[in-house]
Design goal:
It contains six helices and no strands. It has about 100 residues and is mainly alpha-helical. The protein has a domain at about 5-75: Orthogonal Bundle (434 Repressor (Amino-terminal Domain)). The chain is elongated and about 55 Å long. The chain starts with a helix and ends with a helix.
Length: about 100
Amino acid sequence: MESAELALKEWGALGRRITAVRQEKGWSRVELARKLRISRERLAKWEQGDNSPPLGLLVRLSRLLGVTLDELVTGERPADRSWTEEERKELAVCLDRLLRFLERL
C-alpha cells in the first residue's frame, strides 16, 4: 500500500474513533467543535477521514474527550501500569502522613 493510501486509511480510523468517543460523551459535532474553537465543518472532515487534525489540536482533542493520545490515535487502551516496589512504599508513606494530618483536625 502506498503511503498516501495508508494515510487515508489511518485518517478514516482516527475519524471513526473521534466520532465514537464524542458520541459516548453525548456531544454533538457542533458542541465539540465549539470546545475546540474550530468550525463544525473542519471537525466533520476529521471524522469522515478526509484529513486529520494537526498535532496540537489532536492533543487538545484527546484531553477534551478524556482519552489518551495513544488511545485516540491507535485505538488501543493503555495497559494498566504496575507500580514498582519503591513507588508503593512512597505511596504508603504519603498516605500515612495524610492520615496523621487528618487525625489532628
